[in-house]
Amino acid sequence: MQYRMLSDQRKRWVDCLRGFCMMAILLFHTEIYYTGTSIIGYNLYVSDALYLFFMLSGYLLYKKAGMIDIKYKLKSVLRNLLWPYFIFTSVMAVPKALAHGERVDNAWALVQNVVTGQASWFIAALIVAEIFFVVALRLCRGNLFALGSVCVLSFCCSALLALNGNLVTFWQFGNALQAMLFLFLGYVFHRYEHKLVVDVWPTV
Q1: Model-level pTM?
Q2: Domain-by-domain residue ranges, the chain?
């Protein structure tokens, strides 16, 4: 009974944090569409919200039962992220282009934008980052030091690419490399969560 209550509490805080992040991003885009500018600076809350999304994804990747089944995870990414990405961005391609004042007479450009992962950089980066992370987790056999080293190295590579102006944008590989570190932080937090005081969550 106590375990069930703890599980429900964890689900609530994860859902609440997701909702908070979604509201921050929706607020930013609402400001852009209605005022033409962002009243609150982009980096003040949108970037932080996206980092939290990546950390939550890492948190949910941790399984107490053992290693993640790569085939199962790939199917999960295909079902829950990739197909919804293609469907949503395809439906929204023309309205989004019109809202941004872009041309809509070039259908190939719109299709290319969707196919190359440019239509929603965050979802594309999340898809690639989760696949990279699961593969790295399997190769490191769950060793946190090795996994952490891979994720830190990925983050550094992404930062170097960005500084040189060569950030890989095809399916947001550059951003996915950066996200690996935040997935790792969420994963580690979940792994050692039982050692933390549960009562701290209302304060957080």
Answers
A1: 0.83
A2: 2-203
